[in-house]
Amino acid sequence: MTTTTADSIPHHDGPTPAQIRRGRRTALLLFAVGLGPMLAATLMFYTGWLNPVGQTNQGLLIEPPVPVAQLNLQTAGGEPLQARFGADSAETKWLMLVVAGTCTEDCEQLLYLARQVNIALGKNAPRVGRAAYMAGVPADLERRWQEDYRLMERLRPVTGESPRWPAGVDPEQQPRLLLVDPFGNVMMNYGTEHTGKQLLKDLKHLLKLSQIG
Predict the structure, then answer these.
(1) Which of 99, 100, 82 is nearest to 91 (CA)?
(2) pLDDT digits over 183-192, tens only?
(3) Which one of 44, 108, 161, 167 is separated from 36 by 20 to 30 angstroms, measured CA to CA?
(4) Cα radius of gyration rounded to whole Å, the chain
(5) Residue 199 to residues 75, 110, 206: CA-CA distances in angstroms?
(6) DSSP state, 70?
(7) Distance between CA 51 and CA 12 in Å, rounded?
(8) Distance CA 165, CA 157 (A)
(9) Long-range contacts: 46-51, Cβ < 8 Å, 24+?
(10) How confident is the model over 95-153, as pLDDT tens digits?
């Protein structure tokens, strides 16, 4: 009779090499499925690869794109803005960000433009967020904010820091609308010289290409 002892039973303290290889292949596949379409969309948008003939962006490209972390902005609750972006974020979406010094007529024109474009996106509206950073808000606009722009989040500088803007963007001199992709890249900007139709055209094109956000 054969006696089975604890010493004669094979011990498996961890995954086998074959299991590790399968796990790595699975992780790479999930990465490609999740991030591949967005990377392809970015490449297509910037290079025109496979775009329809004559398809061009309407906004001004920020080249190279600037990480949103560089802006030094946070939410009213103190969350860094960059925490909203990336494949691991549950809130990942595109963002229209209006930036200005004291919000006067041109600034409010961009606030209104962002609101109307968001509405015009229809079923895709939830894929695009709206936010604003303004160094100063006139009393009249402050009184009307909840009625006119209640769905636009207000941002403020990170404690102890000042906002840093992409090259060519100076909100104190001219308010701008920055477009941020789901990876947290500030990629385009618009001003009062642009129409809602132009911004809407860019967003529809990007949302069609993107599977993230």
Answers:
(1) 82
(2) 999 999 999 9
(3) 167
(4) 23
(5) 25, 11, 11
(6) G
(7) 53
(8) 12
(9) none
(10) 999 999 999 999 999 999 999 999 999 999 999 999 999 999 999 999 999 999 999 99
The alpha carbon of residue 168 and the mean position of all alpha carbons in its chain are separated, in whole angstroms, by 20
Q: What is the pTM of this model?
A: 0.75
pLDDT of residue 49: 41
The one-letter amino acid code at 23 reads G
In DSSP terms, 98 is beta-bridged to 132, 177
Three-state DSSP class for 99? strand
User: Tokens at residue 97, please?
Assistant: 């960000």
Residues 6+ apart with CB under 8 A from 81: 68, 69, 71, 73, 74, 75, 131, 155
Query: Looking at the DSSP assignment, which residues form a beta bridge with residue 74?
Result: 80, 156
> Is residue 79 classed as helix, strand or coil in its secondary structure?
coil
pLDDT value of position 122 = 96
Buried b (16+ CB within 10 A) or exposed e, 141-170: beeeeeeebeebbebeebeeeebebbeebe
Which phi and psi angles does 23 have, rounded to 5°? Answer: -65, -40
CA distances from 161 to 73, 135, 156 (A): 9, 13, 10
Q: What's the rounded Cα separation, in Å, for the pair 25 and 119?
A: 42
Contact 65, 50 (CB under 8 A): no
